[in-house]
Specification:
346 residues, 11 helices, globular
Length: 346
């Protein structure tokens, strides 16, 4: 660990982490943490030693000019701290970096060492996976944990996922063994528009984080960016009849699956968020994780124009697989992408 500044004394700190790579479809999770850091003017106080965890032939350093002097930025993971004001101020320890190439257990132990030293009370890890979800519907967000008591108290899913995992899943499990409460929040990104950025998925993660931590996050231009993103995808889909048909199939499957859940609970959450905001209160390369736990390329392309062309959907009679076969790493519900616990992350 390279300490850049002295370790600050924090108030009721929560660690929020995200890592680029397999756990970060559409860069949705890492962009969410970057948004928090930017909006609350986070100050970096520590960084992991890049030599210990990164293969520089996989994640290459970059060269830039600073006042006429050439400098190098090394791929690493940095920790910053932000103060959230309000009636009950608290601090967030933001962890943002790249999924390490090696020594994952040591990597997690270093982060947990800092969490212990800073008195972190909860670790929230953000992730995003590729799923069979339409871009026209709300982004499915799953909140999962390995702690049964925490699942009950915070209205989360207790993870039952088995399969390939990334650094998100490893870090959450390390927290569990260390006795540190940990939660994973996963966003499902449409696999047919997986190229970053995906502001709609980033916005959904931040909204879920607001609910989880009972605080108000300044969203800036993110809502407008999310609307513009959806309009752009709508236009692209309208230009290709196969894509439009596929999106319609996903919409029908999603609406059918969620019809029994059209309860007042989701409406109540949105109304509570609206009241908080009205009152001004309230405290890369190599593919990504998929709902099935495997890898997927960032795009499926067709023709020299590079137009996205998704695979044709499965026949209706085969779409509803048994829960045990399709329970995604982040999503227990069949058609929603990640609703089971730590999707690819676990």
């Amino acid at each position: 660990m390279i300490e850049l500044e002295g370790v600050p004394e924090l108030i009721d700190p929560v660690m929020v982490a995200a890592f680029e790579g397999w756990n970060d479809a559409g860069d949705a999770a890492s962009t969410a943490v970057a948004h928090l850091e930017r909006e609350w003017k986070g100050e970096v106080f520590a960084a992991l030693d890049a030599e210990d965890y990164y293969d520089f032939q996989v994640n290459r350093p970059t060269v830039f000019m600073d006042g006429g002097v050439r400098k190098i930025t090394w791929p690493t993971t940095r920790l910053s701290v932000v103060r959230v004001g309000g009636e009950k101020p608290r601090d967030l320890v933001l962890v943002r970096g790249i999924e390490p190439s090696m020594r994952w257990r040591s990597f997690c132990n270093e982060l947990l060492g800092f969490a212990h030293e800073l008195g972190v009370e909860l670790v929230v890890v953000l992730g995003a996976l590729l799923g069979d979800t339409p871009h026209t519907r709300p982004v499915p967000i799953s909140g999962t944990t390995s702690d049964a008591d925490l699942a009950r108290r915070m209205d989360l899913e207790e993870t039952k996922y088995e399969g390939p995992t990334g650094i998100v899943g490893v870090l959450q499990e390390a927290c569990t063994h260390a006795g540190v409460p940990a939660v994973s929040l996963w966003a499902a990104v449409p696999h047919y528009v997986s190229q970053p950025p995906n502001p709609k998925a980033t916005l959904a993660l931040l909204n879920r984080l607001e609910d989880l931590l009972d605080l108000r996050i300044p969203l800036g231009e993110l809502p407008e960016d999310a609307r513009a993103w959806q309009v752009g995808v709508d236009q692209l889909a309208a230009e290709d009849s196969e894509v439009a048909e596929y999106v319609q199939t996903l919409e029908e499957a999603r609406d059918t699956a969620e019809l029994p859940e059209a309860s007042g609970e989701a409406i109540a959450r949105e109304f509570e968020r609206y009241l908080r905001r009205r009152d001004g209160g309230g405290p890369a390369s190599g593919g990504h994780a998929t709902a099935e736990g495997g890898d997927a390329g960032s795009y499926l392309r067709d023709g020299p124009g590079g137009r996205t062309r998704p695979p044709m959907p499965p026949k209706p009679e085969t779409e509803q697989r048994p829960e045990t076969e399709q329970r995604p790493e982040a999503d227990p519900r069949p058609e929603s992408g990640p609703d089971d616990e730590d999707s690819p992350g676990e």
